[in-house]
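General statements about sequence and structure are easier to judge against a single worked case. In the encoding step, the backbone of a single protein was reduced to a row of integers, each denoting a local shape. The record that follows shows the chain in one-letter code together with its fold in token form.
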Amino acid sequence: RADIALTNSIVRTLGEGDDDIVLNADSITLTTSELLAGIDFGLGTRDSLGGTIVLDATGDIQLLTESIVTNDVLDDGRGQSGDLLVRAENLDLIDSLLRTAGFPRSSSAGNIVIDVANAIFTQANAVFFPVIASGDFFESLGRPGSITINAPQIRLEGGSLIETVTNNNPKIGNITITTETLEVLEDSDIATSVSRRGIGGDIQIQAMDILLEGRGGDPSLRPLGIVTDVFLPRGGTGGDIVIDTENLTIIGSIVGADVFADNSSGGDVTIRASNIVRLDGDEAAAADGFIGGGQISAVLRGRGGDEASFGGDILIEARQLIVKDASLIDA
């Protein structure tokens, strides 16, 4: 196989569907470039299916400097966007985007499947955050796909996001991650969210060691980490969080299934650790703007305090549980 490198380039198969983008190479590098597949504005029928995007490398895949790989159903289109499949030795996302989306009411997003032999690394150096995402990001009632990620090492930095978003839809948009080491750092987030009367996706994570660390993030914001949230206006049901690990460390970050809307229900949080669950603060970093400890929560926040809203349950099984320095377990 040869190497593929695209710089300031666009590969576009948007139309009525069925047109794939397939890159098979030793290594694949996109720099300020776009791969666009799916169903274009005003095209497609209810049964239309967008083509699949496949990035298949025996070596590394790098998406750099606001590169975009999207498989979408655009405004006034109909049908389902195709899947997005990534296979590589290593995957680097630097200020870049992997997304499937169904924007119109009658559309659905395809699934994202990422299978990496070694490591996934994401980093944000600009406002354009690295994102692996599926769903409806303009609240037009499209349906998300699922996200499945398999890699021995996963490291998210600087506002990186893995997320699904659903509005007024049945239970879809799950995130499943299987890894040995997971690090979610500096305002990065693994999240599913729901608004209106939809049901949010679940988050299921299997890992040997998990570190959620908020140092370096914005202290004025609610901590981020691993969350399934229910947002306004009302009537949503949040997804569950299930974490199976040996060690879970939460420093100034959160594992939370919280409700921010009236007449809504939050999901449950289940953590099974064969060794240690540790929630910790960092007093020495307070001078640099870091505040707060680790949190595990399933609570009502903001407007989610009316009598018709309910939080979920929290179950923690661990050989040792450590909660210190302003940390909190709240249900």
